[in-house]
Specification:
Helix content is 40%, strand content 12%. The protein is built from 10 helices and 8 strands. It has a 6-stranded mixed sheet. The chain is globular, with a radius of gyration of 22 Å. The two termini are 33 Å apart. 28% of the residues are buried. Residues 191-199 and 267-315 have low confidence and may be disordered.
């Protein structure tokens, strides 16, 4: 990759719960290679990681990511044995059960009494868990003034439950605070809004490299147990959604590049409203040859192993 021609590095992070720890490892690896992103966009746990990146000084970003993941993974003591095979699966199941019953430190806690017993119309009646611990964690780890300074652009999204439409939050267009991050990271019945995805807009002509970090691999082993079937089904469902969105975005950009004229008459039309009615009849009219932004899709077993090598060992 010729880094000299790239004006922007964009990091796109999806949702995936505890798998978001791998995203932190990927960011650390990119930073070490001199490709730290100046635009981060994400959903759910990806939005939280993005806020930690954009809301801290460059030299503290990896430290803050590590601090966050140490907090939310501190419920169970580390095992003295290597977590592999069935033992690893047992530990994962135990951690999931503990989170279901007791919540996750610095993230969420169960409501008492539970939602069905709460007064109708109150926030407590619409979710089983209270996410105020996450608010406190983000407030302590994110510098919101820096996040909104424009040093690193941040884009996250959520779904408006009243309209069902996407709601996009972009630090280049509005001030972002902890509420936007929590809205993006919300889950139905856990908190009050739903997740959605955000694809960075591309103003034509800029050289931009997009790193899309997939947490769910499209390729995998044939299931051996009913638990493997469930895990494989989730991998296929979420990875296929990512591939579909990526292909649609690349196709749209190719069409946009193909119809972008560069002849002199069209240049005059863009520069002057009076020339807007001029027809493009010049024999030199041609399609733009601007570089289509490249999307690096980190999926598949090989990429998974690379991500795991960089990820924090918290399981």
């Amino acid at each position: 990759m010729d880094r000299s021609v790239h004006e922007d590095y964009v990091l796109v992070l999806q949702g995936g719960g505890a798998l978001g720890a791998y995203q932190a490892g990927v960011f650390e690896a990119l930073s070490a290679e001199g490709m730290a992103p100046n635009w981060v966009t994400g959903i759910s746990i990806g939005a939280i990681n993005c806020a930690l990146i954009a809301g801290n000084a460059p030299e503290r970003r990896v430290e803050r990511l590590r601090e966050f993941w140490n907090i939310v993974s501190s419920a169970l003591p580390k095992s003295s044995f290597e977590a592999v095979g069935d033992y690893r699966a047992f530990l994962s199941s135990a951690a999931a059960l503990q989170a279901l019953v007791w919540g996750v430190p610095g993230f969420f806690k169960p409501r008492v009494p539970p939602a069905p017993l709460q007064p109708s119309g109150t926030p407590a009646a619409t979710s089983y868990y209270d996410t105020e611990p996450l608010r406190s964690t983000l407030e302590s780890l994110v510098e919101w003034e820096r996040l909104n300074s424009g040093e690193v652009r941040l884009s996250v999204s959520a779904v408006n439950v009243r309209t069902g439409n996407h709601a996009y939050f972009d630090s280049a267009k509005q001030r972002i605070d902890v509420r936007h991050i929590m809205a993006s990271g919300a889950l139905p019945r856990v908190s009050r809004t739903r997740r959605s995805s955000y694809v960075p807009e591309d103003p034509g002509g800029e050289h931009r490299t997009v790193f899309q970090v997939d947490l769910f691999s499209a390729r995998g082993e044939f299931p051996a147990t009913i638990f493997d079937v469930s895990e494989r089904e989730k991998d296929i469902r979420y990875s296929s959604r990512t591939r579909r969105s990526t292909k649609a975005e690349v196709a749209w950009r190719r069409v946009a590049e193909a119809v972008r004229p560069t002849c002199r008459s069209c240049s005059r039309a863009r520069a002057s409203p009076a020339a807007a009615s001029t027809s493009c009849t010049s024999s030199t009219a041609r399609s733009s040859t601007s570089t289509i932004p490249r999307t690096t899709n980190r999926s598949g077993p090989s990429a998974s192993r690379r991500a795991m090598a960089y990820a924090y060992s918290i399981f």
